[in-house]
Specification:
alpha+beta, 2 domains, 18 helices, about 30% helix
C-alpha cells in the first residue's frame, strides 16, 4: 500500500489540518480524538511533543488517590511510536518540516497523517500513518505507518512503546494577573496527579505486555502490543522497564523505497474480565488479530462504522458547511459511549480530554440521550443502566441529608456518590452545584421515561426504571417543604440550570420537574399495577413501598408552587427574580454572543436578571405539553435578551425554541454557535476536550428544531421549519423496535415506517393526525 491517503473518504467526511501550528496543537488533539466507546485517544503526535496534552481514557476507569477530586484516569499511552534514520529521530521539534497535514476521516473513524521531515543531514523522509480504535473489536487499537526514503539510503529504526509514565492534570496554577505561557511549558505549570502503579511487564510471542493498576480503585489495566514490518530481515529488540515496555524493529531502506509497519495494541481491564484474566485476554486477542492482514482488519472496522452511520446520519441539503459540522458532532457522539458497558456513562468532555475530570452531569439525559435513543437504542439503554447501577450511591446521598429514596449527584463518577468539589481548587469560590442543583434527579427520571416511551422496552421499565421512579418520588416527597401560611409546597435554597443565581427559592425549573417526577411516578405505578401486578408486588416488597405513598405524591404535586405571572404570560425563573436589577446587554463578540456588561462577570450577576444559560426556556422545551404557544413565545421574548450564553449548552436550546416561537433569525444565529462550537473552537477552550453535550444538542437542533420533532404523550409529532437556503433534511429514527425514515423540504414531508408489524403508526404533523402505513412511503404536504 504505497499511499495511505487512498483510504480516505470523500471531502464531506473529512476534517483537515494543513501546516503545523504549535499554538493549535491541543485543539487538534481534541477534535482528532479516535475512539469506539470503550476508549478515546486524543489526536497527539505519535512521536510526542513538548506542548502535547496526551491522553487515552478508558470508559469507566476512575481513581482518586491524592487528586483534588475523582479523576477519569489518563491511561497508559498506546500510541507511542518513534522513527530514527541512521540513529537520528524524526521530530517536529528537531527536523525541518517540509510538509505537514492530518485528516480526520469521520466516515471511517480514523486519523491520517503525512509529514515530510528533513533531518540535520539533509535526508528527506515521508512519513504517513493511519490510526484507529477498532469499532468492531473495541479492545483493539491500530497504527499503520509508511516510511519512504526520498533522497537517501540508510537504516530505519521504529520503536513502538507502551508508556504508563503518564499523569492527570490536577490543579491549575493561580496567578494574580492573567498570564500566557509558551505552549511547550503551559501544562507543566499544573499540579499533576499519579493514578497508576506498576504490576508487571513481559515479553510475548507477538511483542510486549505491560500491566498497571490504579492506586485506590481495584482496576488492573493490561496492554499487549506487537510491531511488524512489511520488509523481511528486520532486526527486533524488546525492552521492559518500570511502567514502560518497548519493541523496536531495525531494517535497511533504499532510496525511494517505502516500508510499512503495523502496530497493534489490545487492552483489557479488570472491569472487563477478572484480574487473573487481564493478561491472557489481551495477549490472546492480539495473537488472533495477527492472523489477518491490516486491510482485512480495516475493512471490518470500516463495515462497523458504515452500520453506525446508516443508523444515524442526518443529511442537510443546501448547506454543505452545516452538513459537515453536524457529521463532526455526530462522529464524536459515536465514539464516546459504549452499548455494552452498563457501569459507564459520558463525561462532560467525552473521552477526548480531562475537563471536569471526566464527571457525568445532567448533560447525558437532557442533551445527549435523545440522539442515542433515536439512533443507537442499545447505547441509550447502557447509559440508563449506569444510573440504575449507581443507585446505591445516590441512595446514600439522599440519606446524608436525612431524606428518603434516591437523590442523584450533580457530578457522578463510578459509584453514584457526589464528586462535585465544594470549593474551587484555589479555595476562593464556593461551589454550590453539588449541594443545590437538585434537578439532576428529575433529569435522570426524564431520561428513563424518554428511553421507555421511544423504545417500548417493557422489561426495562419493570426491572430497572420503576425502582428509580418510585425512589426519586420518595426523595422529592421528603425534600418538599410545606408553607402552612400559603398552603403550598416549596423548595428553598436550590439552584436551577441558570447558575448565575445560587441558593434561590422556588426555582420554577426545579419545582416543575419535581411536580412532573411525582406525577409520572404515580402514573407508572398505576400502569404497572394493571399490566404487571406480580412484578410490581415483588418490587414494592423489595423497597417497602406502600400504596398510600402514591396518593401522597399526587397530593403534594398538586400543591407545588409554580411562579407565574398570568397577566404577562411570564414564568418567573424563581421567586423574586422579577425584582432583580435590570442590566442590559449592549455588546456582542465576533460570534454574536453577549459580552458581560461593564463591571460584571461570572461571579457577580446574582443580583441582576442576567442569565448564564436557559432555565425557563429549557423547561418549555423538555415539557412541551405543559405550556401554551403563547406562554412559550412570551418567555422566549423575555428571557432571550437577558441570557449571556456562558455555557455551550445554551445555544442549542435557543435554536430549538426560537424555531418553535417563530424567531427564525435568532434560531439560525444560535444554531451556528452550537454546531460549530468545537469545529471552529468558538469558545476558545476546545483544547481540553469536546463540548459533547453541545454535540448532542446540535443533533437535537436539527431534528427537533428544524425538523420540529417532539415526543408528546408517547407519540412522535412534527412542526418543522427550514432555513430558506436549505433544500431539505433527512434522518432516521428508531421507534418502538422499528425505523421511521423522514425527509423534509419546504413543501412536504416524506415518511417511511419500516416495520414487520401490521396496522398503522399514528403520528402528528403540524397539529394534525397522520397514520403511516407499514413499509410504504407517505407524503404529507405542508
Amino acid at each position: 500500500m504505497q499511499n495511505l491517503k487512498n483510504l480516505l473518504s470523500g471531502p464531506e467526511w473529512l476534517v483537515e489540518e494543513n501546516g503545523f501550528d504549535v499554538d493549535r496543537i491541543n485543539f487538534y488533539e481534541t477534535i482528532f480524538t479516535v475512539g469506539n466507546g470503550y476508549l478515546g485517544t486524543r489526536g497527539s503526535l505519535e512521536e510526542g511533543h513538548a506542548a502535547a496534552l496526551q491522553g487515552t481514557y478508558l470508559n469507566g476507569v476512575y481513581d482518586h488517590h491524592q487528586s483534588f477530586v475523582v479523576d477519569l484516569v489518563n491511561a497508559p499511552d498506546w500510541l507511542d511510536i518513534s522513527v530514527y534514520i541512521d540513529g537520528e529521530k524524526l521530530s517536529m521539534q528537531t527536523c525541518e518540516i517540509l510538509n505537514f497535514e492530518r485528516t480526520l476521516d469521520m466516515k471511517n473513524g480514523m486519523l491520517f497523517r503525512e509529514t515530510r521531515f528533513q533531518d540535520s543531514q539533509g535526508r528527506i523522509t515521508k512519513y504517513q500513518s493511519i490510526r484507529f480504535a477498532h469499532m468492531a473489536s473495541p479492545h483493539v487499537m491500530e497504527t499503520y505507518v509508511s516510511i519512504t526514503a526520498e533522497n537517501y539510503s540508510g537504516v530505519v529504526t521504529i520503536e513502538g512503546a507502551i508508556n504508563a509514565n503518564v499523569l492527570n492534570l490536577d490543579v491549575e496554577p493561580v496567578f494574580k494577573t492573567k498570564t500566557k505561557f509558551d505552549p511547550d511549558v503551559k501544562w507543566h505549570k499544573w499540579a499533576k496527579s499519579v493514578h497508576l502503579d506498576h504490576v508487571s511487564g513481559s515479553l510475548t510471542n507477538e511483542g510486549i505486555y505491560l500491566e498497571v493498576k490504579t492506586k485506590d480503585r481495584p482496576h488492573h489495566i493490561g496492554y499487549a502490543s506487537s510491531l511488524k514490518a512489511s520488509k523481511e530481515g528486520a532486526i527486533s529488540s524488546k525492552k521492559i522497564d518500570h511502567k514502560y515496555a518497548l519493541q523496536s524493529l531495525t531494517v535497511s531502506i533504499e532510496q525511494s523505497e517505502t516500508i510499512t509497519f503495523e502496530k497493534q495494541v489490545s487492552i483489557f481491564t479488570s472491569r472487563d474480565v477478572s484480574k487473573k484474566d487481564v493478561k491472557p485476554s489481551a495477549v490472546s486477542l492480539l495473537s488472533e488479530n495477527s492472523n489477518d492482514s491490516f486491510l482485512t482488519r480495516f475493512k471490518t472496522h470500516q463495515a462497523a462504522w458504515n452500520a453506525k452511520w446508516d443508523a444515524c446520519e442526518v443529511i442537510i441539503e443546501g448547506d454543505d458547511a452545516a452538513n459537515h459540522a453536524l457529521k463532526f458532532n455526530t462522529y464524536h457522539l459515536l465514539i464516546t459511549a459504549s452499548p455494552v458497558d452498563y457501569h459507564a456513562n459520558i463525561g462532560a468532555k467525552s473521552l477526548s480530554g480531562e475537563g471536569y475530570k471526566g464527571h457525568v452531569f445532567w448533560d447525558t439525559e437532557i442533551f445527549m440521550l435523545p440522539f442515542y435513543v433515536f439512533t443507537q437504542p442499545e447505547t441509550a439503554k447502557a447509559l440508563m443502566m449506569y444510573r440504575y447501577n449507581t443507585k446505591e450511591g445516590a441512595r446514600d446521598y439522599a440519606q446524608e441529608d436525612n431524606h428518603k429514596g434516591i437523590r442523584y449527584p450533580w457530578e457522578s463518577a463510578d459509584t453514584g456518590h457526589e464528586v462535585t468539589p465544594p470549593w474551587t481548587s484555589d479555595g476562593l469560590v464556593r461551589i454550590w452545584t453539588g449541594e443545590r442543583e437538585l434537578h439532576i434527579t428529575s433529569a435522570v427520571v426524564f431520561g428513563l421515561i424518554y428511553y421507555y416511551e421511544t423504545t417500548g422496552d417493557n422489561d426495562f421499565l419493570i426491572d430497572f426504571a420503576a425502582e428509580i421512579l418510585f425512589e426519586t418520588a420518595r426523595f422529592w416527597d421528603s425534600r418538599l417543604e410545606y408553607n402552612n401560611e400559603l398552603d403550598r409546597y416549596e423548595l428553598t435554597e436550590v439552584e436551577g440550570p441558570d447558575e448565575f443565581h445560587e441558593l434561590v427559592n422556588n426555582s420554577v425549573y426545579t419545582n416543575a420537574l419535581t411536580k412532573w417526577n411525582l406525577e409520572k411516578s404515580a402514573e407508572y405505578y398505576t400502569i404497572l399495577k394493571a399490566s404487571n401486578p406480580n412484578k410490581l408486588k415483588i418490587l414494592s416488597d423489595k423497597i417497602s413501598l406502600q400504596e398510600h405513598e402514591i396518593e401522597n405524591w399526587l397530593d403534594k404535586a398538586a400543591k407545588i408552587y409554580i411562579p407565574f405571572d398570568p397577566d404577562k404570560s411570564l414564568i418567573e425563573e424563581f421567586e423574586g427574580y422579577f425584582n432583580l436589577k435590570e442590566v442590559p446587554i449592549t455588546e456582542w463578540d465576533e460570534n454574536d454572543m453577549p459580552i458581560y456588561p461593564e463591571g460584571y462577570h461570572h461571579d457577580n450577576c446574582q443580583e441582576t436578571t442576567l442569565l448564564k444559560q436557559p432555565d425557563v426556556l429549557m423547561l418549555t422545551y423538555i415539557l412541551p405539553s405543559m405550556f401554551s404557544d403563547q406562554v412559550k413565545k412570551a418567555n422566549y421574548d423575555y428571557y432571550e435578551p437577558r441570557t449571556m450564553h456562558k455555557s455551550s449548552l445554551s445555544p442549542c436550546i435557543h435554536t430549538i425554541m426560537g424555531i418553535e416561537v417563530g424567531n427564525y433569525e435568532k434560531a439560525l444565529q444560535y444554531f451556528e454557535r452550537s454546531v460549530y462550537v468545537d469545529l471552529v473552537d468558538n469558545q476558545g477552550n476546545t483544547n481540553t476536550g469536546m463540548h459533547i453535550a453541545s454535540a448532542g444538542g446540535s443533533w437535537q437542533a436539527v431534528v427537533s428544531g428544524f425538523g420540529g420533532m417532539r415526543l408528546k404523550g408517547g407519540k412522535l409529532t412534527f412542526k418543522p421549519w427550514l432555513p430558506p437556503s436549505w433544500t431539505s433534511i433527512s434522518f432516521k429514527l428508531k421507534w418502538q423496535g422499528d425505523e421511521v425514515h423522514v425527509t423534509l423540504n419546504h413543501t412536504k414531508f416524506v415518511f417511511l415506517w419500516k416495520t414487520e408489524k401490521s396496522g398503522k403508526l399514528d403520528i402528528e404533523v403540524k397539529d394534525s393526525a397522520v397514520a403511516l402505513p407499514a413499509n410504504q412511503e407517505m407524503i404529507v404536504m405542508l
